[in-house]
């Protein structure tokens, strides 16, 4: 079969590989229908890499598939079921897994990063990583389940009250998912900071009340003008904007840090955090939020389809990655060929 294999140092090669076979009794064999390209994939392929990955691995960690075969011990899905994959495989026995903090597992491994993923027609994963989803959800939209589950884990920490105001920093796929979900949660006003025109237009279509270009306007001043006190909630969907978050949040407000940038070293005035009782909340991937993500996608009330701006066959995956690098796409869906 043709698969997109990470070959180290910025190299992703579409080539022939042996199709996987069902191994352990608790594995499932999946026929991949659609796989999203993630910002993490772009980081992995950067030189020098912005995210580690194992050379030789088939990439792709956001995917929807049909179950082709199941191991003897699998009972929650059956051949023919449409599923989505949680790519984060936690061990279940380290101190954090035993506390129920599975997303903080000491021995976490990632499908499509450290073991074979979904940029291929077939994929074998542990059965506990798959969640059934209605086949009525188009596969490239179902493939949004993973980033959406991550976003819902963050939204849960915010404990949003309808009528609160929010500022989302960055309108890439994650910022746009926050925009859709916070709008649905009754946030008002909902402000988005974004410098790229293409993404700003997307944010407006996803329900933002106002898009602020921080290169052209004084972000904190505009936010204060719109919210009077500062935003109740600020979400950093970029990973290096804690300073902006602290400047734009009201006293007693929450700053949610979602994006990740390994080399960001913000200068923080700790005095303000204490004096104004600011809450800084980190949130990392998903924990127990796949069921809600699946239900949101199945309900069809939010326009998740708008996020999938491009569709490419697997052989054109490099074109999709280039679009993302240039900021000309939100989510690129890849369709494997048998
Ligand atoms: Zn991802
Ligand atoms: Zn663990």
3D architecture notes:
This protein is an alpha/beta fold. It has two domains: 2-137 and 300-335, Quinone Oxidoreductase, Chain A, domain 1; 149-282, NAD(P)-binding Rossmann-like Domain (Rossmann fold), CATH 3.40.50. The chain has helices at residues 39-44, 95-98, 139-142, 145-158, 173-184, 197-205, 219-227, 242-248, 270-275, 290-299, 317-325; strands spanning 2-6, 12-16, 27-37, 62-70, 82-85, 88-89, 109-110, 122-126, 130-132, 166-169, 190-193, 210-212, 231-236, 249-257, 279-282, 308-313, 331-335. The strands form four sheets. Strands 3, 4, 5, 8, 9, 16 and 17 form a seven-stranded mixed sheet that branches. The chain has a six-stranded parallel sheet with strand order 12-11-10-13-14-15, sandwiched between helices. Strands 1-2 form a two-stranded antiparallel sheet. Strand 13, helix 8 (242-248) and strand 14 (249-257) form a beta-alpha-beta unit. The radius of gyration is 20 Å and the shape is globular. The relative contact order is 0.16. Residues 38, 40, 61-62, 147 line the site of one zinc ion (ZN).
How is this fold's topology laid out?
Layout: E1 2-6, E2 12-16, E3 27-37, H1 39-44, E4 62-70, E5 82-85, E6 88-89, H2 95-98, E7 109-110, E8 122-126, E9 130-132, H3 139-142, H4 145-158, E10 166-169, H5 173-184, E11 190-193, H6 197-205, E12 210-212, H7 219-227, E13 231-236, H8 242-248, E14 249-257, H9 270-275, E15 279-282, H10 290-299, E16 308-313, H11 317-325, E17 331-335
Parallel strand pairs: 10-11, 10-13, 11-12, 13-14, 14-15, 16-17
Antiparallel strand pairs: 1-2, 3-4, 3-8, 3-17, 4-5, 5-9, 6-7
The structure holds zinc ion (2 copies).
């Amino acid at each position: 079969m043709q698969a997109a294999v990470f070959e180290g140092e910025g190299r992703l090669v579409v080539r022939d590989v042996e199709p996987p076979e069902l191994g352990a009794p608790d594995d499932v064999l999946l026929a991949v229908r659609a796989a999203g390209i993630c910002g993490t994939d772009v980081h992995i392929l950067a030189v020098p890499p912005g995210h580690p990955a194992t050379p030789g691995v088939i990439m792709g960690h956001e995917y929807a598939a049909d179950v082709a075969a199941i191991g003897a011990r699998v009972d929650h899905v059956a051949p023919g079921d449409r599923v989505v994959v949680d790519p984060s495989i936690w061990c279940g026995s380290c101190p954090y897994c035993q506390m129920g903090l599975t997303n903080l597992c000491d021995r976490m491994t990632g499908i499509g990063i450290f073991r074979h993923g979904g940029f291929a027609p077939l994929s074998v994963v542990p059965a506990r990583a798959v969640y059934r989803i209605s086949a009525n959800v188009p596969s490239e939209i179902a493939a949004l389940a993973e980033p959406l589950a991550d976003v819902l884990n963050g939204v849960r920490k915010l404990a949003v009250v309808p009528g609160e105001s929010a500022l989302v920093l960055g309108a890439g796929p994650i910022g746009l998912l926050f925009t859709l979900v916070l709008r649905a949660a009754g946030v008002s006003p909902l402000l988005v900071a974004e410098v790229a025109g293409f993404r700003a237009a997307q944010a407006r279509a996803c329900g933002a009340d106002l898009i602020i270009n921080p290169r052209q306007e004084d972000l904190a001043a505009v936010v204060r003008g719109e919210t009077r006190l500062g935003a109740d909630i600020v979400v950093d969907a970029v990973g290096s904007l804690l300073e902006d978050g602290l400047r734009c949040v009201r006293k007693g407000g929450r700053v949610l840090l979602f994006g990740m940038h390994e080399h960001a070293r913000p200068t923080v005035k700790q005095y303000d955090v204490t004096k104004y009782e600011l809450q800084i909340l980190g949130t990392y991937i998903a924990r127990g939020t796949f069921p809600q993500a699946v239900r949101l996608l199945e309900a069809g009330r939010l326009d998740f389809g708008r996020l999938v701006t491009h569709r490419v066959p697997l052989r054109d995956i490099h074109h999709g990655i280039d679009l993302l690098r240039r900021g000309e796409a939100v989510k690129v869906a890849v369709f494997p060929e048998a």
